[in-house]
Design goal:
Length: 137
């Protein structure tokens, strides 16, 4: 009797290897469905960037901080970048104060993943969602 079944190796690393007599097409389909549901349940963390200038107004900083809080709530990391133009680079303390103020306002939602650092004409830091504080809420 020919039942249109195949000999499929299930666990090749086992000793002795495990094989089953099953329909290979059906096996492949079920495996794809399993992989798809696993991928769907995983959360892809992204890096969102918020760009500022050292003379950005306080209201605009608050607005961008609210957006960053939403990104952190969704589980994404947020990179804050202060871009210096022209002679602004000589007063880096303004950018540092701006970023420190953002850290202070987001202290309950995030932790500093990468501290403030300077890359050419940019000053940046990365904040990550604080999982400990998120679980306690």
């Amino acid at each position: 009797m020919d039942r249109e079944l195949d000999l499929v190796e299930i666990a090749p690393q086992a000793n002795p290897p495990v094989c089953k007599i099953i329909d290979f097409g059906k096996f492949k389909y079920e495996q794809q469905k399993r992989d798809k549901t696993q991928r769907k349940s995983q959360h892809q963390q992204q890096l969102k960037e918020v760009r500022l200038h050292p003379r950005t107004d306080e209201h605009d900083v608050d607005f961008k901080t609210r957006h960053a809080r939403e990104f952190l709530g969704e589980g994404h990391k947020v990179k804050f970048t202060v871009v210096f133009r022209g002679r602004e680079i000589t007063h880096q303390e303004f950018g540092r104060q701006l970023l420190q103020g953002i850290i202070d306002s987001l202290v309950e939602d995030a932790k500093v993943d990468q501290p403030i650092r300077i890359d050419g004409r940019n000053m940046s830091m990365i904040l990550a969602p604080d999982s400990k504080k998120k679980k306690s809420v």
